[in-house]
Amino acid sequence: MGELVPAEATRDRMLQVIGLSFLFPGLGHLVTGARGLGLAWMLIANAALLSGFHLAGYTQFDYGFSWALGGIKLVVALPESLNFGGTLLIGNLASSVEAGGSYIENLPNRQLGYLLSGIAGILSVASAPHAAGMVLAQMEPSREGRLHPGKVALFALLIPGLGHAMIGRRFKAKLLGFSLLGMFVLGLALGGFADFDRQRHGYYWIGQMFIGLLAWLSYLPLLPLKMGNVLPYQDTGFTFTSVAGLFNIVVALDAYHRAESDWLEADRPKSDPIASVDAEVSA
Amino acid sequence: MSNIFVQFILLLVFSFALAAVVSCYRDDDPQDVMRGIPRRMALFAGTVAGLAFLAYVLGVSFLAPDSLSA
User: B21 — contact with chain A (CB < 8 Å)?
Assistant: First the structure.
C-alpha cells in the first residue's frame, strides 16, 4: 500500500511556512494565523539568541564562517544560524570581541551565552515543523483530536523518544530513548565528562546540543571538569556524544512522519481513494 | 593506551545505536524493527572492522616505512 501524504495544496502551504520559519522563527506561525504563538516564538527565540550573543561577546562567530556579499556579511555559525534571519542581522551589526583584541577569558558568562544562543538556534528550527503541523491541522483537520505532527517533532527534539511515546509507539520510544541517551552518557563518560565544551571542542558541540534537554541542563554543571591528561577513548567519547545528537534529528523527523501518517490515516474515509505517493507516481 | 577489544565493543555499541535509528526510520512495526537491527548492526560493524583490517594489513606491508628498501 502507498504511503499517505497530505494533499498538494497542503504541502505547498507547509513548504511556505517551513521556509518562513527557517528565515525567522515564528514567521510561519504568523502566516498560519497563530499570532500569539508566532509572536511568542519570535520573541523567545530571538531574545535568547541576542542575549546569548551579547553574553559571549559575539564570539560565536569565531566558530563559524563568513563571506562578504556586496554590502552584506553572510554569516554561518551553527546551531545559531538555524535562526537564519536573526543571526544574519546580528552578524551584520556586531563583531566578535576577539576581533577587537579582547580575550574571551574576560567574559565570565560566555558559556551561558553559548548555551542560550545554541538553544535559541535549535528552538528556532523547531518552529518550522511545528508551523507545518499547524498547517496540516488547519487544512486537513482531524476528527479524532490527535496531536499534530509539529508538536510531536518538537517534543522529540527535546527528549529522544518522547515524540514516539506521545503517538503511542512505546517500543520505539524506549528503544530510541535508551539508545541515544545511553550513547550520549557513555560518550560523556569516555571523555571524563569533560568532552562537552564549545570552547574546547566547538565542532562536536554542534551535534551534542541536539540531544535536547539532557545536554542543555548538564552543560554548565559539567564545565568545571577538565581532562587532566589524554584519555584512551576520548575521541570515541566525542563521536558518541556528537553523533547521538545528530541521530536525534533523524528520530525527530521519523516522529513527525509517523504522526503525520497517523493523522491522515485516521481521517481517511474508507470509500475514498488513497492519496498516496504511489498514486502520484503513476499519475 | 587503548585496547583493541574495548574498541571493538565500542564499535558494537555504536553500530547498535545506528541500527536502531535506521531500523526505526525504515520500519514501524516492532517486529520489523527488531529483525532489522542485527542485520544492519552486523553490516556496519563488519564494514568498519573490514576496513580496519585492510588498513592494518596495508600498514604492515606496502605502507610500512621499510617497504621501499625491500
Answer: yes
